[in-house]
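Assess this one:
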Amino acid sequence: MPAILIVVVILAFIGLAVLGWWMKEQRRKALAAFAASRGLRFEAGHDAGLEDRFPDFDCLRRGSRRYGYNRLRGQWNGREVLAFDYHYATHSTDSKGRRKTHHHHFSAVILQANVPLRPLLIRPEGFFDKVKDFFGFEDIDFESAEFSRKFFVKSPDRKWAYDVLHTRAMQMLLDSPTFNLQFSGSHVIASRSRTFSVADFAAAAGVIEQLLDGLPEYVVRQQTGRG
């Protein structure tokens, strides 16, 4: 390889590394500013303990080398919130037996409920969900055909799913930005398979907030033992 070409390749790698660093710094600054505007604390460092604190959230248990970063924490309209970017790694092997590591990044928001919750998964319906449905592995369907087409819903307690996803809640989800939502214990997580924009963090918290605020009074009484 000619010397000039080697120099060009090296400079290209350096340029990509500098660009990647600059983009990460810009994101950190934007998230820190957003956190300050909402009265939240911002912590850029890695946190490998999220999967242990929230063991039921499936998205936090993928792959290996898992950790959260760019964390925002505090109070969101009276509820405890934790928002973050998340990393995990997967591995593959090529035809020559060489192992390659793939790094994945996504974002999530976790909001604490003021009422005990039951397990519930709500996410956009994908191609394989439709295949499973064809072979009889059905998700929970609702009176709204539009909602049932757009969302995959799973819960060990169908009545709980119907209680949470009443007519107004379904319409809200149809009208709102789409996230993967999971209920567990006293928390709800909203995530996507990619990193959020700054505005997405507020949108995700807003969707969770509306679901929790929309829980019927009889459900709240039932879950808190008052009815």
About this structure: The chain has two domains: 1-37, 41-224. The CA atoms of residues 35 and 41 lie 6 Å apart. The mean pLDDT is 89. The helical segments are 3-37, 50-53, 127-134, 145-150, 158-164, 167-175, 198-213, 217-224.
